[in-house]
Design goal:
With about 210 residues, chain A is an all-alpha fold. Chain A is built from 12 helices and no strands.
Chain lengths: ~210, ~425
């Protein structure tokens, strides 16, 4: 095989679409996109995305693995479902965006300090401790995610809201000490661990 | 008219649009006996509402005139207008059709003098112009209507207008006691040519067809461009009557969309390219046309037509399915979306927006009076179980006039084969 041939094969090798189809939730829908652009035009946050969904789908098909997986676009999705409702081919676009985000996170490619990615991580860790979301701790860990100083400032800024939530019994100070949870926390944790093992085993390897 | 002479060697053609007329005439001209049943009070169907044909930009009235002349001259053809087939029973070579005759309150004495229309006062939306203008309660459906007879709107019956119309008629052509009738007659084969209707644009919620006056459909635009149409051929904005020089076309409005119509309607790309000519012909260098599309489907020889339009300096093609329309300044529709060539976000204002709405079958899937194979899109599929029923034109698929006529000729041949078989069997 000539050097040039090898170079061309290398250059045009595109396994990223197959990778997405195999490993990303609802990824098998990506090839169905007909590039009409209704999703991008319908996205209320669209102008803040580096790459709107239609472009992400095209980039996947063009094999732009790094650009897609390290992008912050899919982290910008607010799950409003406008795109799903309007897509003429009924692609589950919102789910694909979350699938891509999950996959990127699994591979450790999430952009640093991306706020929604950070929030998702805090939320997950918070919930996994007791099997229930601890609102008080979730709020506090969000305030203090950028350090102690900014955390105090943020907490003071929101103190009126916090007091109101306490009054309406939407949040309890006692949650700070342990907090409520499911009956069998370790059972839940084992279940999730097993599910993750199964998911990892199913994941195909691409180099 | 209530007596129909027919046998099981007769071909029944359901629908008198371009496909039904073609099938009926082709069959009748081979010597077959044909009965043509049309729901409207006149022949020609939706083609009679078009201003020009693509790709030659000639007038459909020309072909319509030829077909109507062929119909008048042919003794083998019986035409029943204002009639609907409500039931079909039997099998190939031996059908019985039940046909409902809606009262027109006007008999064959009518000379189309128009005195009745002058006498009546109440006005109604003119369906021939898709409601863009009004017509009287006694009216000639359009200037080339065949049969050339006035029609009374059923809603004036029992009002003063009905009596006024009757009193104005010098030929005793108005019969206010006319009632709905039902007739039955045999047929050996049936050509089903019930055609299409435009998809209801109001269902495409983000485009606001029902909210914005300056968002219209392609069939309405066609009436607007016609010098005999509601604006006298002037391309204007419905909101203020101002000249619409900056016109946008939105392709696939309803078609190729799983939320609306599954299929590609095939005609809308060419229709918009044709209508682009209308705008450019009307306003010359001042015209500005933008065509928003997913992909232009100008098939085979139509490619040349597309290239001609593409080469016009004042025509822009924007590869994007518009996401939504909002109200801009001065009632301008504002088109929002992202284009596919560079992913640029746009919010473009236009004087007038034409939705290239697609075709859906006229008869809904669950109201066919005859047992035939119908596909997901609502069109009739060729199938063994259809027996001696053959679909022609847009009852079989979304087709342009050229292909509808081909389809109709094919259906006529199939029907002739069935009745010939019956004739041979009966010696």
């Amino acid at each position: 095989m000539s050097e040039m041939n090898k170079a061309m094969i290398e250059q045009y090798r595109n396994s990223f679409l197959s990778e997405v189809e195999a490993n990303v939730e609802e990824g098998e829908w990506v090839k169905m996109c007909m590039q009409c652009g209704v999703c991008s035009g319908s996205c209320p946050l669209g102008k803040h995305w580096a790459h709107p969904p239609q472009e992400i789908f095209m980039m996947i098909r063009a094999g732009k693995r790094d650009e897609v997986l390290t992008s912050d676009s899919m982290w910008m999705c607010t799950s409003c479902y406008n795109c799903i409702v309007r897509c003429p081919r009924q692609l589950p676009i919102t789910h694909i965006m979350h699938g891509l985000a999950t996959y990127a996170k699994k591979l450790g490619l999430t952009p640093k300090n991306q706020p929604t990615a950070k929030f998702a991580e805090i939320f997950w860790n918070n919930m996994m401790k007791k099997g229930r979301v601890n609102e008080l701790k979730l709020g506090l860990s969000l305030y203090f995610k950028d350090g102690f100083g900014p955390g105090i400032k943020e907490a003071l800024r929101n103190k009126d809201l916090g007091m109101k939530m306490m009054k309406a019994k939407r949040m309890a100070a006692s949650e700070f000490f342990g907090g409520h949870g499911v009956k069998d926390v370790s059972g839940l944790q084992k279940m999730i661990k097993k599910a993750q093992e199964l998911e990892d085993a199913r994941m195909k390897k691409f180099d | 008219m209530t007596e129909v002479v027919a046998t099981n060697q007769t071909i029944l053609v359901v629908g008198g649009g371009i496909s039904g007329m073609t099938a009926a005439l082709e069959a009748a001209e081979t010597g077959a006996q044909v009965v043509l049943v049309e729901k409207r009070p006149y022949l020609g169907g939706r083609v009679s509402q078009l201003y020009k044909y693509f790709p030659k930009l000639c007038h459909p009235t020309c072909g319509l005139e030829i077909n109507q002349r062929r119909a008048k001259m042919n003794p083998n053809l019986t035409i029943i207008t204002g009639a609907e087939v409500s039931k079909v029973e039997g099998e190939a070579g031996n059908y019985t059709a039940t046909v409902k005759l809606t009262p027109t309150y006007v008999n064959d004495n009518c000379t189309a003098c128009g005195e009745c229309a002058k006498a009546v006062e109440a006005e109604f939306d003119d369906e021939y112009n898709y409601g863009l203008s009004k017509r009287k309660g006694a009216y000639l459906p359009h200037v080339m209507a065949h049969p050339m007879k006035y029609v009374l709107d059923p809603s004036i019956i029992g009002t003063d207008d009905a009596q006024k119309a009757k009193d104005a008629c010098k030929y005793d052509a108005i019969d206010l006691d006319d009632t709905e009738k039902e007739i039955q007659f045999p047929a050996g084969a049936i050509v089903w040519a019930t055609g299409w209707k435009p998809y209801d644009a109001a269902k495409i919620q983000p485009y606001g067809y029902d909210r914005f006056e300056n968002v219209i459909t392609n069939v309405e635009f066609e009436r607007m461009a016609d010098p005999k149409g509601p604006t006298g051929g002037k391309i204007v904005r419905p909101s203020d009557g101002k000249e619409a020089k900056n016109v946008a076309f939105i392709q696939c409005a309803g078609s190729r969309d799983r939320n609306h119509l599954y299929h590609c309607s095939r005609i809308c790309c060419m229709a918009s390219l044709k209508q682009t000519h209308y705008v450019v012909d009307a306003y010359g260098d001042d015209a500005q046309v933008s065509i928003y599309y997913i992909d232009i489907r100008a098939i085979d020889r139509f490619e040349d037509f597309y290239q001609t339009v593409k080469d016009m300096d004042n025509v822009k093609f924007i590869k994007s399915k518009v996401a939504s329309i909002t109200r801009g300044e001065d009632d301008n529709p504002c088109l929002n979306g992202v284009d596919t060539e560079g992913y640029h976000r746009y919010a473009n204002e236009h004087d007038l927006v034409v939705l290239a709405t697609g075709m859906e079958p006229s008869v809904s899937i669950d109201s066919f009076p005859v047992d035939v194979e119908i596909n997901r899109e609502g069109f009739i599929e060729p199938a063994e179980k259809n027996g001696g029923v053959f679909a022609a034109g847009c009852a079989s698929d979304a087709l342009d006039v050229n292909r509808a006529v081909q389809s109709a000729t094919g259906a006529a041949l199939k029907a002739i084969q069935v009745v010939n078989r019956v004739a041979r069997a009966e010696g």
